TrEMBL record:
It is a single-pass membrane protein. It comes from the Eukaryota. Its main location: membrane. Residues 61-354 form the Hydroxyproline O-arabinosyltransferase-like domain. The chain crosses the membrane at residues 6-25. It is found in: Membrane. This is Hydroxyproline O-arabinosyltransferase-like domain-containing protein. GO terms for cellular component: membrane.
Length: 356
């Protein structure tokens, strides 16, 4: 009996000693528990395997601007190209590719080295009937036929466009991207337009309320559209009813018809551009189109239809170069007008030999 008690006492003492030993070892042991064979220096956390990222292919577009060699068109083209270069320089990963001024005079001018230029032939004498804009579609036809354009898309722009930010490629899924003009009204002129867009081509609503600019469109699509645009423009000009109905926006209607004729619809982007003074803020827009005169009194109130105490109107400089450092608008004039004048001033201050 005594031996038996002695045995149990020994077992209990040994167990207590073993538990105490394990506690001491556990307290000093590292919490890092490895799989067999792994180095104790490696982390137990599974490494993150980075999946390869898919690079988005840039959908570059080529910017094309048609112009004559008049002072009026030339100073606007120089300002436009200055801001094109600035936006590309400041945003090198944008969708903006190359640039071409399509000069439809048939002869080079002194600014060929400053602005990348393609010289197109004008229409034969008398064909445009004094409506010089008819040279635009004919100039595009020549450029598209004769030049190897690297980009897959074309932005048709104008000399009186100023880029306030880089333009992304807004076209999608075979559709062009265009600005909707409130004064292009296909439904209102359906009777006239049916002469050039017959009913078998589809409903009149297939004709979008656009002009040719600003428009971003696939290069291959434009190669089909441009000859039709030219032919429809000439046919409209020869048609007294169409000529009277469409007036100075005739070739805009002709482009809209040609685009619909070839089944190229357009995504309409109201924020593509603004037109001061009617649009007062820049917002999300990419282009300032300064087609309208901006007239204000010294209190910043618009005096449209009456020459203001302060004014900026591109037509004031149809035969002369605008001076550097134009006076800024008085307080109260909208942001869009202030930005326009500041951007013209920056361009003229930095373009060499301005006014020559």
């Amino acid at each position: 009996m005594g031996c038996r008690n002695l045995f149990f006492a020994a077992v209990i003492s040994f167990s207590a000693a073993l538990i105490t030993y394990n506690i001491i070892i556990s307290a000093n042991a590292s919490l890092n528990q490895e799989f067999p064979g792994l180095s104790a220096t490696k982390s137990s956390v599974d490494p993150i395997i980075r999946m390869p990222t898919k690079k988005t292919r840039r959908r570059l577009f080529h910017t094309a601007v048609t112009a004559s060699d008049s002072i009026y068109n030339t100073w606007q083209s120089r300002v436009m190209y200055y801001w094109f270069k600035q936006q590309k320089l400041r945003h090198p990963n944008s969708d903006m590719g190359g640039f071409t001024r399509i000069l439809h005079t048939g002869n080079p001018d002194p600014f060929m080295d400053e602005i990348p230029t393609f010289v197109a032939n004008p229409l034969p004498d008398g064909i445009d009937q004094g409506y010089i804009v008819l040279n635009r579609p004919w100039a595009f036809v020549q450029w598209l036929q004769q030049v190897n354009i690297e980009e897959d898309y074309i932005l048709m722009s104008e000399p009186d466009h100023i880029l306030v930010k880089p333009i992304p490629n807004l076209s999608r899924d075979g559709l062009g991207a265009a600005f909707p003009f409130f004064y292009i009204e296909p439904k209102k002129y359906e009777k006239v337009l049916r002469k050039f867009f017959p009913e078998e081509r589809g409903p009149i609503t297939n004709i979008d309320p656009i002009g040719n600019s600003p428009v971003i469109v696939g290069k291959d699509a434009l190669k089909k559209i441009a000859p039709t645009w030219m032919n429809v423009s000439l046919a409209m000009k020869k048609d007294p009813e169409a000529d009277k109905a469409f007036g100075w926006v005739l070739e805009m209607y002709a482009y809209a018809v040609a685009s619909a004729f070839h089944g190229v619809g357009n995504i309409l982007y109201k924020e593509f551009m603004i037109q001061p003074p009617w649009d007062t803020t820049i917002g999300k827009s990419y282009i300032i189109h300064y087609t309208y005169g901006c007239d204000y009194d010294l209190q910043g109130k618009m005096t449209y239809g009456k020459i203001g105490e302060w004014r900026f109107d591109k037509r004031s400089y149809d035969n002369v170069w605008p001076p550097r450092n134009l006076s800024l608008p008085p307080p109260g004039v909208p942001e869009s007008v202030v930005t326009l004048v500041k951007m013209v001033n920056e361009a003229t201050a930095n373009i060499p030999n301005w006014g020559s």
